[in-house]
Amino acid sequence: MILVLLVLSTLALFLTFVYMRQSTMRLTLTAIFGIALVASLVLVVRNDSAHYGMEKVTTTKTTPLKSAGSDQMDLLLYQSVGTADKNRVYIYKQTTDQKKVSHTAASIKTTNQVKRTTGATKLVTKTTRWTYKSQAAKFWFGIADNDHELVSHHNTFYIKKNWVVLSTTQAKKLSTLAKQQAKTLKSRAKVYVGNEVKAAMMKNPSLSKAQLAKLEKAAAARFQAQAMQSMLQQVKTSK
Fold first, then answer.
1. Which residue ranges traverse the bilayer (predicted)?
2. What local confidence, expressed as pLDDT, does residue 239 receive?
3. DSSP H helices in 1-94
4. 115 vs 112: CA distance, rounded Å
5. Which terminus of the chain faces fewer neighbouring Cβ atoms within 10 Å, N or C?
6. 205: which DSSP letter?
7. What does the DSSP assignment read for 163-197?
8. DSSP label at 137?
9. What is the pLDDT of residues 56-97, one digit of tens each?
10. How far apart are CA 153 and CA 106, in angstroms?
């Protein structure tokens, strides 16, 4: 509506100044329309540059966070935007059976943060937008179509200690490395578990089959974790 007032006051000022004869009425109307023109112009500029008549409103949304990787490892992936790795697009899932992964926006108005937690893994998104303070303000300036204009998105990923954060390039290298070392790791795991069982039996020869099975399972898990940490270290240090 403010733009309509701006146009009408401009037109009225022109018609009054050009077509009316010199009189007190002409001076009065010229002053009124001139003030209306200047005031509407100033308000339009202030609304555009300083969001006059508006206020920032922040909403918070919490969504579940699931691994974007395989079942063997909890992964939070990211893709660097630019060459300096100053901005990242994070890749994740909201449900375990989600076929197509979700990702954060690649925008200068979007910031991301990763925090470790002992609680549930989740994504907390805080969105700030400009909204009109009142219906009157919206009536006057709403024609600019800037209601609910985005100010910023801030994503905070809360992940547990066992989660691994990798770039998509590192994740591909890890997958390739795991396939290359699969046979070697399998044979090494067998030797490792065998040695662990022998050492345990030397300490306690009376171990039952159930105890030995539990020991083998624990030893295999330890070896797998150590092997994965070793591969992760290789991936993170490689160029």
1. 30-46
2. 57
3. 2-19, 24-50
4. 10
5. C
6. T
7. -EEEEHHHHHHHHHHHHHTHHHHHHHHHHHHHHHH
8. H
9. 999 999 999 999 876 678 999 999 887 777 789 999 999 988
10. 11
CA gap 193, 214 in Å, rounded:
11
Give the CA dihedral 230, 233, 234, 238, nearest 10 degrees. Answer: 180
In terms of Cβ atoms closer than 10 Å to its own Cβ (0-12, 13-18, 19+), residue 82 is exposed
Amino acid letter, residue 41:
L
**Other CB atoms closer than 10 Å to residue 113's CB: what's the count?**
11
147 contacts 7 by C-beta, under 8 angstroms: no
Question: For strand 164-167 and strand 102-103, is the pairing parallel, antiparallel, or unpaired?
Answer: unpaired
Distance CA 136, CA 138 (A): 5
pLDDT in tens, 91-139: 999 998 888 999 999 999 999 999 999 999 999 999 999 999 999 988 8
Lowest model confidence (mean pLDDT) among 69-73, 145-149, 187-191, 207-211: 69-73
Tokens of residue 135, six digits: 């219906």
- The amino acid sitting at 53 is G
**Cα 220–chain centre separation:** 37
Residue 130: both structure tokens together: 């400009």
Contacts of 189 (CB under 8 A, 6+ apart): 220, 223, 224, 227
